[in-house]
Every structure is written in structure tokens, then in C-alpha cells.
Amino acid sequence: MSILAAELKKEADFLLFKCGIYDTLKEIGKVYFTGSYELDVMVWPDIDIYLVTPKSKNIITELGIAAGKLIANYDRIVTVKVERDYCKRLASCPPGQYLQLKIETDSFDCLWKVDIWVIPQQALQKKLYETEDFLKHMTKDKRNLILECKQRLKGDNFRTPSFSSYHVYKAVLQKKITNITDIIDYVGTKIKFKA
């Protein structure tokens, strides 16, 4: 793992477990980590979380209460955003609610972004299977290849293009592409971005 990835993971753990994010979310439902945090391939301050809640809960109210608790208890949270149904904005996503936190730290020049996707149990199963499949095929060499590719994809804002990481994982771990140029070309067939 790169030094940057290790530093990001350490700070992500601090935000999640020492600043109350995980404990606040587990009051609402079951918390599942995903994306670069779960796969140990972080190249910028971003954490993705799936949250599954009991159907009996009014999830918008619960997310609002959670957001209020978090922003009240941790003064480094800069913004909070709640969406009632994010699939209206992103048609490729399953129906559900969304909570986003943006957090400042002293370690990085940009804000941390924590994306919390509240999804139905059946949608979660597909996501968990895919993450498990990625982890099953992950090796040290593949992790390093993914990190290098994601570094090259980072734009002027120091972030990878939206959804590009997912396609990098698929290219390396499922399609078994090993050449960085070929991986970036593959990602370019899936999303639009400036190379």
C-alpha cells in the first residue's frame, strides 16, 4: 500500500470511529463499508458507506437527526447534505436516501467527503457480493496497480472522476487488465472524463 493510501486509511478510521460517524449511523441501521476504504485503495479523502435500515423507520427523519448530532458533536464537519431519493439524480443508483458529510482536517488540502447510501436489503446483497469478489481477487500487485491507475486519473481537483474507481476495480480484478494505458482506456469506455 502506498504511503498516501495508508495515511488516508488512518485518518478515515479516526473520522469513522473516534469522531462518532460509525456510532451515530449504527443507531439507525446496519453499516457496511465499501469502495476504496473497504478495498484499501484510497487516493483521496472519500469514504463510501451503505446503510440498511428497518422498513419501519422514517429514514429522512433519522438521517436529519443523525446529521444534526454529527454536526453538533464534531465541529470540523463543514456541510451536510440529505437527499430523499438519489436515484432521481443518478438513474444508475438503486432507490434510496443519501447523506453526505464534508469534513475539514489538518492533514489534507481538500475536504473529506463521506457518502452514506441508504439502500434496500436486496440491493445491498448485489453490492456486497461485488465487493467480496473484488477482495477475493485483490493481491498486493493488483492493489499497487489500482493505486497507480487511480493516481493517474486524478484531476485538477485531486479527485478521481465520479465512478471511475469502480471501473478501475473491474478492469484489474475481473477483466484482468494489467497495462495502465489499457485500464484507463477501459474506464474511458464506461464514463466520460478528461485524460
Give a written overview of the molecule:
This protein has 195 residues and is α+β, with helices and mostly antiparallel strands. The protein folds into 2 domains: 3-120, Beta Polymerase, domain 2 (2-Layer Sandwich); 138-195. It has helices at 3-18, 21-26, 35-39, 59-73, 121-137, 140-153, 164-174, 180-190; strands spanning 30-34, 46-52, 77-83, 97-103, 112-118. A 5-stranded mixed β-sheet has the order 1-2-5-4-3, sandwiched between helices.
Number of helices in the DSSP assignment? 8
Mean pLDDT level: 90
Q: Report the biggest beta sheet as strand number plus sense, adding barrel if it closes.
A: 5 strands, mixed
User: How large, in whole angstroms, is the Cα Rg?
Assistant: 17 Å
Report the count of strand segments: 5
Strand content: 15-25%
Main traits of this protein?
single chain, 195 residues, alpha+beta, Beta Polymerase, domain 2, 2 domains, 5-stranded mixed beta sheet, 49% helix, globular
Provide a short characterization of the protein structure.
The chain is an alpha+beta fold and 195 residues long. 49% of the residues lie in helices and 17% in strands. It has helices spanning 3-18, 21-26, 35-39, 59-73, 121-137, 140-153, 164-174, 180-190; strands at residues 30-34, 46-52, 77-83, 97-103, 112-118.
Secondary-structure map:
Layout: H1 3-18, H2 21-26, E1 30-34, H3 35-39, E2 46-52, H4 59-73, E3 77-83, E4 97-103, E5 112-118, H5 121-137, H6 140-153, H7 164-174, H8 180-190
Parallel strand pairs: 2-5
Antiparallel strand pairs: 1-2, 3-4, 4-5
